[in-house]
Amino acid sequence: LEGELEAIRGAGTWKSERVIASRQGPHLRLAGGGAGILNFCANNYLGLSSHPEVIRAAVEALEKFGAGLSSVRFICGTQSIHKDLEEKIAHFHQREDAILYASCFDANAGIFEALLTPEDAVLSDELNHASIIDGIRLCKANKYRYKHMDMQDLEAKLKEAQKHRLRLVATDGAFSMDGDIAPLREICQLAQKYDALVFIDECHATGFLGPSGRGTDELLGVMDKVTIINSTLGKALGGAAGGYTTGPKPLIDLLRQRSRPYLFSNSLPPAVVGCASKALDLLMESNAIAQSMAAKTQRFRSKMTAAGFTISGKDHPICPVMLGDARLASVMAEDMLNRGIYVIGFSYPVVPKGKARIRVQISAVHSDEDIDRCVEAFTEVGRKHGALP
Ligand code: PLP
């Protein structure tokens, strides 16, 4: 093991964890010092992780329903709040039903094996999230991997997959490393042409993409064409934990019978259910929070572009500042922290070689001043390290 650990360090891919001593939010205190750090690397897109009403809802659920169920759902682990939240999720996405999991990782791990047989086929974008890749590994269907968002390649693979009983196209709605959005309209057209179902992972879209924050399918006008949605409660929707599948009722019924991470893992704790449920209420009352996040994203993207940086993706709060060189990304991220701004550099193998970047994530609770301070720091640090002229 020591040798293996050394090899990871030697390869420069060691992931260290910074310890936060405050709540999640735009301003953090780090353990052992560092107060007032501006945080630009959480998936807290709507700033609900520490929203007072979300916290209150968690406390109330904890008081009323206890710390946890000490059980899986089908034994004695289903409370009224679990059923209410499932109904709320299905309503939010305008789908027939929904099923909760301990995480979206579990939802992705559980769906393909339960749904697909060796007679079926799954066609997966090559840059899909690790949990989709693992879920697909667990199933016995025939596997096709198409080039990232390449519709010609997807069509070729769909033609090849015609020999199978059922075809499922699986894609992230928004891809977390590049902030780019799957061409769902084209995917759904191809799916219709070649008689396939469409599955999307909406972890980086639920709550804020589309006119009322329903996600990528709403943004691209294909809510009635996407069959299955998996998403998380651990990012925009309160940020505690939990995941779900929403879609046709028979599919959800089947998952309750067959999906292993659902059948053999504890029910979501009531406090966590309370957080997500309140987050959804807040979103369904008004989309002002999502709009405020979109305006701040626009501010950051346009100011950074004007400063001379290249920001990947379009209109998404994931704003990867493309730098190319891995060392440059790492020293710049370090220097940003020296200036009180917490951002993370990503390099190979997390992203392709030569495409190192610092990933900035915008939240509705960043102020305009926070955004401007971040851009100013990037400009200084970029000039210092030669990323800007
Ligand atoms: N899918 C995508 C695209 C993600 O980014 C993540 C989280 O990183 C997951 C699934 C897993 O979500 P959870 O944290 O709920 O397990």
Automatic annotation (TrEMBL):
Pfam families: Aminotran_1_2
Keyword terms, alphabetized: Acyltransferase, Pyridoxal phosphate, Transferase, Transit peptide
Ranges for domain Aminotransferase class I/classII large: 37-378
MF terms in GO: glycine C-acetyltransferase activity; pyridoxal phosphate binding
PROSITE patterns with a match to the protein in the record: AA_TRANSFER_CLASS_2 (PS00599)
EC number(s) on file: 2.3.1.29
Superkingdom to which the source organism belongs: Eukaryota
Top EC class of this enzyme: transferase
HAMAP family: 2am3keto_CoA_ligase
Protein name: 2-amino-3-ketobutyrate coenzyme A ligase, mitochondrial
Organism: Daphoenositta chrysoptera (varied sittella)
Classification lineage: Eukaryota, Metazoa, Chordata, Craniata, Vertebrata
Primary gene name: Gcat
